[in-house]
Design brief:
Helices cover 35% and strands 16% of the residues. It is of the alpha/beta class and 640 residues long. Helix 13 runs antiparallel to helix 20. The model has no long low-confidence stretch (mean pLDDT 96). It binds alpha-D-glucopyranose (2 copies). One alpha-D-glucopyranose binds next to loops.
């Protein structure tokens, strides 16, 4: 194709050598090909493509100059999001500080902690009451008055940019709220809007789909379709019945959502979190997850963003099986050209596995899969987020460690829901599926680590153990390479919040257990030595600062796992530019011994090791001597 975007007038005033025009040219053929691959036979194909072209040019023309400058700076740096300089936190604006206009006044808090990336949980309009925490969007462009206004969001972004901070927002791509204008019109019989969703007059197709589709929320929202008496249609609702799945077989849906994506880009979003991308394409006879067309849509979307807003990275929230997650980084000719970032959901869950079992072998068995991530892409590494913990890693990983997968998962569920005898964890089972026996786990970091139970007994030893477990979990995750993402409340060791039970919009969903409201008086205790809040906050901020100073911790594709000489201990080596860091983590409740040989079998021969965490300098002993790691202790040791 020569000049695919040469509609008269579209590029008329633009210098041929402008960087936008050059990006357009280099991406045009792929954009066209992906679009045609998805939509060639569709009657709206040609008109939709024209809208797409116009959207790209318009987004570029409307992009504020300060964002264009930021794009250029990021392009100069290359893969800016691989840096060890970035540390993030996810938070609910209302639950954190009330409103968007109050957030600029709280930015010092993040500087104190070392956080420079904020993931604001959905702030665009969603119905009061049942909104799945804002993931049921009724207007993609209007900030919900509960949080403030678009102007508040813009002024927050500009304050953040001035401070060198990064902003992450969601686009809820898979579905809209049943209150969205498209949904309202569809319900009233508007056929154009009905074609935005998966709607059926009878059960024949829904039944065909159901035969192979799993359920996401089997307890609170069984089935994948909802009957609409007003228009006599079944509508596909994979998540809750008030979240209607968009139909991406319709190119108008894609282009409309692309326009929303570009709108967010021009608000100054640095990382766009694509919510639930695994679900965006449906095909009867399949699980309707991870389909090739879903990947094609993401590739197309990323190319469009790379053309008009090249500074915005794409994060795919694909919480699926380990092998399936990897595919979101792109495959074949699109390797490293799909999502820039994905959630390291496998590792997140495996850290919890290691903590409960005091055995790191299942976690290690998964690493060969996780390490297949292509260079130039990275992970969000996290210990907790606003969602549940799913135990979706493969059975063979559990078997390799010598456990029976069914019994192993049953143990984990009992352990974290606190029913296993002696378990210090206080979580809850989420989305129990009585048919399959599946369940996931809710609960705050601190409660799952035993702090809630320990505080209830008041036993100092138990509190200390819980605090050590919390810092171990944070440290292990922070030095893996990738963007660490903390979750609101976890920086203070906040325990479960049971108040959701008295709110009918939330009581059916125990993920609210671990979505606390920040209490700023309690948060002040972070300044008082001896308090839980002080311990968790100061450990965490020290870890983040340490990380920032260690260039080998950036994601250079340089994560190497040490051989498991001791099943309680997980160790990794991060070497870059002549510097070598060993991260050593004891997931066991007793002292663990690790042979010094472990430090010599990965191509480095350190004679001394300086532990940045404890300040201790160790001399590497002979093979038959050991490093002794305290219970739930860790070392961040640099060679030399
Ligand atoms: C994502 C969100 C989750 C939400 C779901 C449906 O997985 O993280 O909170 O329930 O999408 O939008
Ligand atoms: C499922 C989905 C994931 C979502 C979660 C919410 O695991 O795959 O996208 O975050 O449910 O609980």
């Amino acid at each position: 194709m020569t000049e695919p975007f040469d509609k008269p007038g579209l590029l008329a005033d633009m210098a041929p050598a402008s960087s936008f025009r050059m990006r357009l040219q280099s991406h045009a053929a792929d954009i066209r090909q992906l679009f045609d691959g998805l939509y060639a036979g569709h009657p709206a194909h040609a008109a939709a493509f024209q809208r797409l072209e116009e959207a790209l040019v318009r987004a570029h023309l409307e992009r504020p100059a300060r964002l264009v400058a930021r794009d250029e700076a990021k392009l100069d740096r290359g893969h800016w999001f691989l840096s060890q300089d970035i540390a993030g936190m996810s938070l609910y604006v209302d639950r954190f500080c009330g409103s968007l206009s109050a957030l600029p006044g709280r930015l010092d808090y993040f500087s104190e902690l070392g956080v420079n990336l904020l993931h604001l949980m959905p702030v665009f309009e969603s119905p009061e009451g049942e909104s799945d925490g804002g993931y049921a969007v009724s207007d993609f462009r209007r900030v919900d008055p509960r949080f403030g206004t678009l102007a508040d969001l813009q002024s927050l972004q500009s304050d953040m940019q001035d401070r060198g901070m990064y902003l992450m927002l969601d686009i809820v791509l898979n579905h809209t709220s049943h209150h969205h204008e498209w949904a309202r019109r569809a319900r009233a019989g508007d056929e154009r809007c009905q074609a935005f969703y998966h709607m059926f007059p009878d059960r024949s197709l829904p039944d065909a789909y159901e035969a192979s589709m799993p359920e996401v929320f089997p307890e609170s929202s069984p089935g994948n379709f909802t009957w609409l008496p007003e228009c006599g249609r079944w509508v596909m609702t994979v998540f809750h019945s008030y979240q209607w799945d968009l139909n991406y077989r319709n190119p108008d849906v894609f282009v409309s959502m692309l326009e929303n994506v570009l709108f967010y880009a021009n608000l100054g979003v640095d990382i766009l979190r694509i919510d639930a991308p695994a679900f965006i394409w449906k095909e009867p006879g399949t699980s309707c997850q991870n389909l090739p067309q879903a990947h094609a849509l993401l590739r197309l979307l990323r190319l469009c963003v790379a053309t008009s807003a090249p500074g915005m990275a794409i994060l795919g929230e694909a919480i699926v099986a380990p092998r399936d997650i990897m595919e979101y980084f792109g495959t074949g000719a699109f390797t490293a050209r799909e999502c820039d970032i994905a959630y390291n959901a496998t590792h997140m869950a495996l850290q919890w596995d290691a903590l409960a079992t005091a055995d790191t072998r299942v976690m290690l068995a998964a690493q060969s899969e996780i390490l297949r991530k292509p260079f130039g892409t990275t992970w969000i590494n996290y210990v907790r987020c606003h969602d549940d913990i799913g135990l979706g890693y493969d059975d063979h990983m559990i078997r390799e460690a010598g456990y029976d997968p069914y019994a192993h998962r049953s143990f984990l569920k009992e352990y974290y829901s606190g029913t296993f005898p002696g378990s210090p964890a206080r979580g809850a089972l989420f989305s129990v599926n009585p048919r399959t026996g599946d369940a996931r786990i809710s609960g705050s970091l601190a409660s799952l680590c035993g702090l809630e139970a320990a505080l209830a007994t008041g036993e100092a030893g138990a509190v200390e153990t819980a605090l050590r477990r919390i810092s171990l979990m944070h440290a292990h995750c922070l030095f893996l390479g990738g963007v660490p993402m903390l979750f609101q409340g976890d920086e203070l060791g906040t325990i479960n919040d049971y108040s959701y039970l008295s709110d009918p919009g939330k009581s059916y969903d125990n993920r609210w257990l671990h979505r606390p409201i920040t209490d700023w008086e309690i948060s002040e205790r972070r300044h008082f030595e001896g308090s839980v809040e002080h311990r968790v906050f100061s450990d965490l901020s020290r870890l983040i600062r340490l990380r920032r100073g260690l260039a080998m911790v950036a994601d250079h594709g340089n994560l190497h796992w040490m051989r498991p000489h001791n099943r309680h201990v997980a160790g990794y080596v991060r070497a870059h530019d002549g510097r070598v860091l060993y991260g050593i983590f004891n997931f066991g409740r007793d002292e663990a011994w690790l042979t010094w040989y472990a430090f010599r079998e990965h191509g480095h021969l350190p004679s001394t090791l300086t532990d940045h965490w404890t300040g201790t300098r160790f001399t590497c002993g002979p093979d038959h001597e050991h490093l002794i790691i305290p219970p739930y202790g860790f070392h961040l040791m640099e060679a030399g």
